[in-house]
Design a protein that fits this description.
The complex is a heterodimer of chains A (355) and B (314).
Chain A: E1 3-12, E2 15-25, E3 30-34, H1 41-49, E4 56-61, E5 64-65, E6 76-79, H2 91-100, H3 106-119, H4 135-147, E7 153-157, H5 165-182, E8 185-190, H6 193-199, E9 202-207, E10 210-215, H7 217-222, H8 227-232, E11 237-244, E12 247-250, E13 257-258, E14 260-263, E15 269-275, E16 280-283, E17 292-300, E18 306-312, E19 317-323, H9 325-331, E20 338-343, E21 346-349
Helix pairs in contact in A: 2-3, 2-4
Chain B: H1 2-26, H2 35-64, H3 68-77, H4 80-113, H5 119-126, H6 128-131, H7 134-145, H8 152-157, H9 166-192, H10 195-202, H11 207-236, H12 239-245, H13 255-264, H14 268-299, H15 304-313
Helix pairs in contact in B: 2-14, 3-14, 4-9, 4-11, 4-13, 7-9, 7-12, 9-11, 9-12, 9-15, 10-11, 11-14, 13-14
């Protein structure tokens, strides 16, 4: 069942949590709402669940306008960041709750609960209390509790936010597999772009109560629509640029031209250019001519890429460059070396998108 | 409750850290205080305790039983007024407790689950009965329900008599005990948070199901604790009840009032006998309170810290 939110606005006092937001989640897909805290992503999720009432706008499940329906009648599975398991009930009773309040027959309740517990491999915990479970186990119980009454949609609020890194990445791939088996239309909220890209079919990037961009993970990463998205999705170098006759020239006076694709503006003026660390190359000689002179400040060779930090003294800029280990070995960089940095590509955005 | 402990840990560690540091600096852990200081402080505490609490309590029982158990029993049961006062207290207190449970849960629910205009006023208003002298409260009700009062004439015209009757006792007692349940529950419900209730709602539970299956089990020990405190106060209430009851022996005299009536009549043995019953009830309350506190701890709500600070305030 597809989920649609249309022109949803929500204010808390003077704070605008959601500003005329529209989102669509196609049936059977797993969509991530991605954004920093305060971007309105959780508010949007709670409005879809019926736990919050929008000031204006509508929420549709398939073609049904359910904006006025109580959370109770929406048949939504909601998973809370801090699990919200009923602490005085056993794991079994927690999972059974949604069936019991619907007065399902005893037999059916037991079969369904045990089936779900088997699905997450926690059958032996049936008679334990939530306090006796680990964080990852609690989150799995919270998930099957939400799924027990066969919800039409599943909503997850920062489902892995309270877990440590290892459990988190395990549960991530587990959630993806789980979704592939069940195909319940799902939306989850996260502030972790890696998590969103790894798990979701589609990503909706939010900022300050508005949607910056939505699309598949690859679309969003390869073609960020705004400076905010560019900046939010991983490390990026931000360089001041002046536009003159359609060319992007670095700095106030320099003549270094960036191979920048300009978004939203082609008029002369000052903008910021964004270059990811792997989109820069380092050379010992100024071959192309179109390059910055910089001094190596720090080299971190630990990891699958070598992270080099440089200071471009002409511009007073700190620049981060990622090199392949092969390239690094070839260059034999040391702190203090003066090298030439060449941008392979760059993106320029309208300066409105101040971050 | 492993995770709850884990969650409170970061709270306790920083609190401990500065203490350790200051000890390291001054190099005098508390146990190394000179012997005479320890002896003096302990004796002072014990002395105050014995003189102000232990001796008076024992003397109540001593006086009550001075002429033997038979006389004690007759003192309690022979006088119909005294018998009536016991029954009256055992009627008024439970009714007041019931009102308090309803009000306490409603107030705590409203305050912790909703943001509404006047919320802070309500939070403050709940404490008024704690700061106003009970006698003043009693007088206020006389003003309201008396013959020249706001509601008095209207009520009288419609055949209701409030002042100097059971309803007056209940109203005065309820007023005086109003904060107890609410103040116990507010921090408990604040600490538990609304998530479990919202989870129940999205799982399809009705408001009633949420209350009975989720909210009440979570707050039951806090609620019981509040009820015990409230009951203790209700049974011992004197000032407000003194004013609104008219002190009609055999009709509106509760136990504390009857003790005073008997005492004024120079019937000390009977006064002490009845006082000893009140004291026993208080002792039972105290035991219950200790038991519930243990329960609250073993079920280990997050609310633990909040509750203890509240207890200190009261």
């Amino acid at each position: 069942m597809s989920i649609t939110a249309q022109n949803v606005t929500k204010q808390f006092g003077a704070f605008v949590a959601l500003d005329n937001v529209s989102v669509e989640c196609p049936a059977g897909q797993l969509v991530a709402l991605l954004g920093p805290s305060g971007s309105g992503k959780t508010t949007l999720l709670r409005i879809i669940a019926g736990l919050e009432i929008p000031d204006s706008g509508t929420v549709l499940f398939k073609d049904d306008d359910i904006t006025k329906h109580s959370a109770r009648d929406r048949n939504v599975g909601f998973v809370f960041q801090h699990y919200a398991l009923f602490r005085h009930m056993t794991v079994f009773e927690n999972v059974a709750f949604g069936l019991r309040v619907r007065r399902a027959p005893q037999e059916k309740v037991r079969d369904r609960v045990m089936e779900l517990l088997r699905l997450v491999r926690l059958e032996e915990k049936a008679n334990r209390y939530p306090s006796e479970l680990s964080g990852g186990q609690k989150q799995r119980i919270a998930l099957i509790r939400a799924l027990a009454p066969d919800p039409k949609v599943l909503l997850l609020d920062e489902p892995f936010g309270a877990l440590d890194a290892k459990v988190r990445s395990e549960l991530r791939s587990w959630l993806r597999r789980f979704h592939d088996e069940l195909h319940v239309t799902s939306i989850f909220v996260t502030h972790d772009q890696e998590e969103a890209f790894e798990v979701a079919d589609r990503v909706v990037v939010m900022n300050k109560g508005r949607i910056e961009q939505h699309g598949t993970p690859i679309e969003v990463f390869e073609h960020p629509a705004t400076a905010f998205v560019m900046d939010f999705l991983g490390n990026v170098n931000k360089l001041p640029v002046r536009v003159e006759g359609g060319k992007a020239l670095l700095g106030e006076t320099g003549t270094v031209e960036l191979p920048a694709r300009l978004f939203g503006t082609s008029e002369d003026g000052r903008i910021d250019a964004y270059i990811r660390p792997h989109e820069l190359d380092i050379a010992r000689t100024a071959d192309g001519g179109n390059c910055l002179i910089a001094r190596v400040v720090h080299v971190n060779p630990a990891g699958s890429v070598v992270k080099v930090r440089l200071m471009a003294e002409d511009f007073g800029l700190m620049i981060n460059v990622d090199l392949t280990p092969d390239r690094y070995r070839l260059l034999r960089l040391l702190s203090g070396d003066v090298v030439y940095v060449t941008p392979k590509t760059a993106k320029g955005f309208e300066p409105d998108y101040a971050i | 409750m492993r995770n709850e402990e884990a969650r409170t840990e970061p709270d306790t560690t920083p609190a401990l850290a500065p203490a350790t540091i200051s000890h390291a600096v001054s190099r005098t852990p508390p146990s190394n205080d000179p012997l005479w200081v320890r002896v003096a402080l302990t004796s002072l505490a014990l002395l105050v305790m014995v003189v102000l609490v232990v001796i008076p309590v024992i003397s109540v029982f001593y006086e009550a039983l001075a002429d033997g158990a038979g006389v004690y029993w007759r003192n309690l049961t022979a006088d119909p007024d005294t018998r009536h006062s016991i029954m009256l207290t055992l009627t008024v207190a439970p009714i007041a407790v019931v009102f308090n449970i309803v009000f306490g849960i409603a107030a705590a629910w409203a305050i912790t689950r909703f943001r509404f205009p006047g919320r802070t006023i309500l939070v403050t208003a709940i404490d008024i009965p704690l700061s106003v002298s009970p006698v003043v409260a009693g007088l206020a009700f006389v003003l309201l329900f008396g013959l020249q009062g706001f509601f008095g004439p209207w009520l009288r015209a419609h055949g209701f008599e409030i002042l100097f009757t059971l309803p007056a006792l209940v109203i005065a007692t309820t007023f005086v005990t109003l904060p107890f349940v609410a103040r116990e529950l507010i921090p408990v419900m604040e600490a538990i948070g609304p998530d479990e209730e919202l989870a129940a709602l999205s799982l399809g539970a009705s408001g009633r199901q949420i209350f009975w299956r989720v909210t009440l089990p979570n707050i039951k020990w806090g609620l019981l604790y509040g009820v015990i405190l409230c009951n203790a106060r209700a049974m011992g209430e004197f000032g407000a009840v003194y004013v609104v009851s008219g002190r009609i022996s055999g009709e509106t005299c509760t136990m504390p009032l009857q003790v005073e009536v008997l005492f004024q009549d120079f019937n000390s043995p009977a006064a002490f006998a009845l006082a000893s019953v009140l004291t026993s009830l208080a002792a039972v309350t105290l035991l219950l309170k200790v038991w519930v506190e243990g329960k609250k701890k073993s079920t280990g709500d997050d609310a633990q810290t909040a509750e203890t600070t509240l207890g200190a305030e009261i």
